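agent> fetching stored inputs for the calcium ion docking request
agent> found them:
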Amino acid sequence: MNRREFLQFLGVSGVISTLPGNLSARTPALYPVSLAPSLEDKLLTAQDLNYKLLLSWGDKINVSQKFGFNNDFLAFHPLQKDRGIMWVNHEYVNSLFIKGPERSKENIDFERLEVGGSLIEIRKVKDDWQLVADSKFNRRLDATTEIPFAWPEPIMGSKVAIGTLAGCAGGKTPWGTILSCEENYDMFYGERDRKGNTTKSWQQWEKVYPLAPEHYGWVVEIEPETGKAKKLVSLGRCAHECAAVTKAKNGKIVAYTGDDANDEHLYKFISDSDSSLEKGKLYVANLEKGEWISLDINDQPKLRETFKNQTEIQIYTREAAKIVGATPLDRPEDIEFDPLTGNVLIALTNNKPKKNYYGSILKIMEKNNDPGSLFFTHDTFLAGGPKTGFASPDNMVFDPKGNLWFTTDVSGPEINKGPYQGYGNNSLFVFFRSGSRAGEVIRVASAPIDAEFTGPCFSPDFKTLFLSVQHPGENSPSADKPTSTWPNGKTPKPSVVCLQGSLLDKIVQGNI
Ligand code: FEO
Ligand code: CA
Ligand code: CA
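agent> prediction call returned; pasting tokens
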């Protein structure tokens, strides 16, 4: 795409003025200058923003364990000033880069150690965050870790699951635990419906370990200082993208979670407690009625006709949601609370069969601004497409001034092709809420080839934005012909980076 085509693609004068190098002679470039779409195999940052590697796939985190593959969600648990434990999800593997595509027990055994999560202690030395190599907190959870179900009944005959996997985004609770959400769990052990029909999985681990698919697809709660974990059956089972936790006006805990698949749903769990997510009621959103609909068997005669008990509803949540009239959505991914309004924002990434390629961010306004309410109105907060210059919003984080930092997730083979032509590699954007640039979206970082940025997470002092660089080189035909060699010029390595610089400082202080 040449400069003229690029300008036509953007087609908005306010955005044109932010182009690199002041492309329009009539309009002086405003600071900060939006990064141009790129197809380079580099992590590019806007002017006055820089990045440093924190940890890459395969780095040792203690004497016997390594940092896993395809890092996603990041959460920071503070210990003391400039020191904390970071939780990192390791969502899935690319067999090419582990031990190879053959589905042998040996290869699968290696892969099972690459997913799950890492707990790592990090500290800031001068301005740089680094691993505390000998920390007692450094540990892994993986696909072999035994994790109990927090539920009174067994799940498919067991009180314990073997491992956690497919952890995508997540959340944090007010009592200091981390939530890791098992998203595309069917890629490891397949799926099984209520009639017992099974599907084959992408990774085909079930050939060696025929574990119950029903043991995955849950929200997992982890204590960062001990690594103790449990699967929260209360929040239902689906391709959970994330779990965003807040409090109702009466103090009870409320968790919002989206099911990231075309035409799936948005859920809300209202706890019976102010300090636990184990007991309460699960609801699903009906946008036409503006109502949260109960999925409790005692509230819904239609569910009693189909399901024998609440445990069955929790396992087949998608099916129950459809029976009670849940609204199909365009891939609900990350969820955040707007610090300026209290509204609930949900990234709707896209829905390609419905020709929605660019996605949007949905805004839910709860009645009386109370997360405990069962009624709401909704609107579009921000739409992707040519006017805003981004496509397929995914993970989001607000800074203290209410500026929204968000990443995009155009799937690898479609990057800069078809409807995505001109959008370049997946990127990190900022939507300004105040100041001279209020209402504008600018691109502040561009990912290497085939990668997406995930897990944006601010340090407590807001001087650093931690960011995952997930699946660089994902579409490589073989390990020796990688499409990306980021970050070391040889093998692509998913990594966590630290973004810093005067641009970040100015934005988070509201000085733009
Ligand atoms: Fe793992 Fe929906 O992204
Ligand atoms: Ca995601
Ligand atoms: Ca994604």
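agent> quick read of the result: The chain is about 10% helix and 35% strand.
agent> awaiting further instructions
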